[in-house]
Fold these 2 entries.
Entry 1:
Amino acid sequence: MTTYRESLPQLGSRIFLTDGGLETTLIFHQGLDLPHFAAFDLMRSTDGRATIGRYLTPYIRAAKTGGYGFILDSCTWRASPDWGDKLGYSREALAMANREAIDLLVETRVAQSTLDFPMVVSGALGPRGDGYVASDLMTAADAERYHDWQIGVLADTPADMVAAYTITNVPEAIGIARAARRHGIPSVISFTLETDGRLPAGDTLAEAITRVDAATDAAPAYYMINCAHPDHFEPVLDDGGSWLQRLRGLRANASRRSHAELNQAPDLDAGDPDELGRQYQDLISRFPHFTVLGGCCGTDDRHVACIGHACRPAQAAA
């Protein structure tokens, strides 16, 4: 049974924290081998599931300490058919991995949430292709058919919503939103942005949000930005416009590197957690409707703790 599917609490004024860069943390900080960045593969074993649980613990602590809510995103960013095929998963095994990932989050919520500490369970989706490069683009109809399978599996679990991260182009976003609407589960679209504040496919953020809303009757619950440094997208926000009210979440990189540089780098650029916290504080002081705050590639619990500490005055005011 879902808890918040009919009324997502992050659509109010309260701030909800999320986690940071799951895959980069597991690979660079914990030394795990994640083929194709597929963290869902950890659901195969008891030790793997425990790894995900331990990963979430400091993020949950930071949210609870700061008086925030928390969004539990599943480790299913790569758990869609094409990526499952590359890892040798049958459809049945892939569906089980998606379900077990949500079950883990539900167990975490039962153990940790209170009336004063709401926790939203979110089924994470990823692009069919690369999260940095817009290549082999699908039509919206093809995207809807592709993502329908995973969304259908997640909709049949207690997940409150699905959130599509590192989406590089408008047709794929439209397809995801339409499939989620058909399955009766709220969707969130989070766009990857380049150093110029545009999607990898070339659209401006304003164009992308406006086009998806027009094609889906504003089906997404809200939109987010992820996998870009605040310096890359802050000028875009200054342009303003009605589309900006549809944007409610940030999962930024702490690194100022471009996606091409991140792809080629042998190291992990974690940037400056304190600086990132201050930049978030500035952003939500200017855009108080941004209520979902977390990190992306290269960020970890230090960054989210700094974000939580810096934004506490805004949370207290909310």
Note: The domain at 16-317 is CATH 3.20.20.330 (TIM Barrel).
Entry 2:
Amino acid sequence: MVIRVKILETNKQVELDLKQISVKDLLTMLGLSLSEHIVLKNGEVITEEDIVEDNSEIVVFTVKSGG
């Protein structure tokens, strides 16, 4: 049971020994802000309430705005 997470901003890959976790708890565990990140599960955007299961492809994008 492993959840693999790729954080694009840092090009870091993390493996978590978990069966499932909510997106909110996942970002908290990784020390990332909910308001500054978008999470994709198997290529689809998911919300903070969604559950991430083992063997899912998780990608975390940092949201940036500028002017």
Note: The longest strand covers residues 57-62.
